[in-house]
Each structure stands twice: as C-alpha cells, then as structure tokens.
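pasting for ref
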Amino acid sequence: MALIIEMPAERLAERKHILDIVFNEFLGIEFHLVQSTRTNVKVFASDAAGAIYLPDSFFARAHLQWAQPESLPCTPLLHWDSATSGLNVDLVDPLVPVIYGDPVTASVKDTELFLPIDIFGSCFFMLTRYEEIVQPVEDEHSRYPASASLAYKEGFLDRPIVDEYVEILWAAMKLLWPNLTRYERIGAIKVSCDVDRPFDPSLRSVGVVSRIVLGDVLRRRDVSAALRRIRRYGAFRRGDHSNDPFHKFTWYMAVCEAAGLGAAFYFIPARSDPRMDCHYEIEDPDILALIRDVHLAGHEVGTHGSYNTFRDQLQIQLERQRLVSAAALVGNNIEISGNRQHYLRWDSRVTPDYLDGVGYGYDTTGSFADMPGFRYGTSKPFSMWSWIRSEALRIQERPLVVMECSVIDDAYLGLGYGAESFDLMNRLKSRSMQFGGDFTLLWHNSHFLHDSDQELFRAILGVH
C-alpha cells in the first residue's frame, strides 16, 4: 500500500528530507509527495478509505522567518494526553510534549483522524538540530550544551521524542489501514571506545616518569607506588602493557564478546591541537599492533577526529587518509567508515558536510557532552541534513546516547558509580531499544582505573 502525502509547497527540499527519513528510513513505507494549497498536511492511501490530518505549524512559520529566533517553538510547550486518543501506542509517557502543533485539534471523525502534533516539522527541527543553527550557544570547548537545548529546558532530553512521534503516526495509520505493514527494526547495544589515552600518560617519557616517581617518594611518601611505576615503565619500554591500567583493550573486547557484542574503537590519527589531543602517533608500532588486534578480534576501527577538525574539512580529510594508510600497514583490509569527534565537538552548520565530503559512512558524535540523552530525539541511525547545500547527505548519524563520563564524572552530572548512575544508563538503554533504536554507549579505555568502573560497565552490558 502506497501512501500519498499532501502538503504545502514551501521548503520542499526540507519537507522531502524529513518524509524520506520518517517513511523510508524509519517505517519502510512507500509514499508519494503531492504539493498542495492546503494549510495542513493530509496523509491518505490511493486504494483505501480514510485520511490523517496534521498541523503544518513549523514550516508555515519558518519559511518566512527561516533560521530566525521567531521560528523557534513557543515555550513553555503544551502537552497532549495521548491516552485520550484511542490510539494503540506505547510511549515513554502518555503525556507528550508538543514541539509544534496544537493539542486542542485532536479528534476522530469517522475515518478522519486529526492529530495535534506537527510530526514532520517537529522531527525536522530535532533531526537537523535547527535550534543550534538559530541560536548557536557554545561552552568552553565550542560545543552546544544540553542546558541550552529545548529538550533539556522542557524536560524531555531523556525521551526519544522523534521515535515517539513516529509511533503516534504509525498507530494512526494502523488504525485506518490495518493491512499496512512497516519495517520492524530490532534495537541493539552499540559499544564504542574513544582511544584518547591508550597507555598510562605518566609512562610516555623517562622525564615524566622521573618527576612522578620523585613526587611519590618526596611528597606522597609512597615508595611502593614509586617502585610499581618504575616497573610499569620498564614493562612499557619492552612493549608489555599487561599491568598498564589504561591499556584495557583485551579485557574490554572480552567483556563485549561475553555480551555477544562487537565494539568500535576510534583512534586519533593526528594532532590539530597538541594541548588537547593524544600523545601517540597513529603509525607507532604499539598503536598499529592495537589496530591489528582490534580488527582480528572482529571489532571495528574508526576515526576519532582531533580537537580542531570539526570546523576544518582539510584536517578531516588528512586524518581519515592517515588512518587508512596506517591500517594498511597492518596488512589487513580494514574499512574506515565511522567517525566520532574528540570532546564531542560539533558544529551542525558545517561538520556533517565536511565528514560527508571525505567519504565517511557514518558519524556517532551525536550526544551532548554535559548530559546523556537524546540530542536528536532518536536513537536510530538517519541521514543527515546539509545546512550548506540544503539537501540530504549520504552520511548517517548514529546518535550517541551515553558517554560514561557525562554521568559519572564530577565535571558533568557527577553521579559516581552507585545505583543512580546505573538506573539512569539502564533507563536510557531501555528507552532506546523500546522503539527499535540502538543504545550507543561510549566508554573510554582509560575509564577502567578502578573496580567500580569495570563493575558498572559489565552491569550495563548485562555481563556478570
């Protein structure tokens, strides 16, 4: 059954993009877009009775004030109680925030359903990060903070609101057309590691080790710690990393494999800011050996774009090629398809285009650094939008849901390793997979320095 979507003609490329994501990528349903003079959106089938009507609030407002503050949602948001709709839909909460739309318009008239949410406009707003284009707020690392986002301010950062909106639309379509079928996506846990510090940084030179050893002896009065560090440095020089608390890759992969999961390891190929980037060269023998081990174990190797790449396409291209060349030295056919930006630095205006332009298949930077949750309103992969060319890109975003330090570390939420951290991560995992999305978890290899790190990681993956 093919569906017909009638909607106004303004911003046709943007409308087509969001329809492609909702119907083709998320639902797997064929559709045909028809330009109309109507002031709302009509969804109907050519060979069956019934129609669904939705408000056209976002594009109607935004096409005259494109990327202007006047086009942003009016706050505080109104809410719609979906429990009163008669739709068979399982949401995080029946009370749904309405980003764009009008909750009072909801009604059912015979075979005509009037939904109160501008589902397509609201999804475009979230998936393209429209608010970040309109009001580009930056923290000390030039990142858009969660605290500036509509999702945080209106209390739905922990809800995959785009996925919920799509489920509301699907429930309405299923009510009218019971024989309609959809693509049923099964969610998964996606584990990834940013290889910022593959080795204990105190071992990187004899000078650094000497200073720390002197501190162990003179300031901390801990001779045994000094001796352990000296032994670790000797082992490091011999290529023995078995006692290096940062070099947990064998253990990391074993835990993922025990959970039936693959993991992705993202390496920094070059330093665009020596103060903020790694202290290794991608061609170092120990790094090449690690890339080989990851690949031979069946896990993924990807790029961790260095600190300044997010606004520098030439540096992005250089680093991808350098990692490709380094991987070739290992002697295996290693495909470099994925990327995550260092420090989660991201500029929605340009970074997607730059990554797409050098041939990445996907990016997985998409979370806020200061808080976990659903920056894009979904945990499903989707095609990204070019704000430079106003068209869909080939590259997909695979949204990051949780970075461990965002939850644990004092610099962010500071929840530590107790039940509160586990409950938050586990809740986001459940909500990701509830709608067939992926729970994408970033856990650094350098964040296993204590038993509590390892225990929480294993608990989230369900490994006992």
